[in-house]
Input
Amino acid sequence: MTTKQVTKETKVCDVCASDKNVWTTCLICGRDYCYNCRKDHTVTYSEGVHFSGRDGDYCISCDTNLLKSGTDRLHTAYLKVKQLRAEETGWYQDFKTRVDAAEKKLKELREGVNSPW
Ligand SMILES: [Zn+2]
Ligand SMILES: [Zn+2]
Output
């Protein structure tokens, strides 16, 4: 029987050294993060305002540097999408606040009309 040793490249989390669920890689420095560590150590930008696709992952330190320098075109493009997403959420919240206030006012008035006093 002939055996052959195969060297398999396995991604290992740069934080906890786990080789399980290592899906997140920083686009800048290439550090890898497992599913558990990505929450605390990386920032993920969505590809679209209304959908996620080829999302951009950055480790916190690279993200911080890029935010400061603002020279990375890909990061800046991701940031723009993120800002638009936030803007839309803001609109919706503002709209909902006004809807709630208007409905509350109407309800109060109608209850006032129907009351025997
Ligand atoms: Zn980890
Ligand atoms: Zn990085």
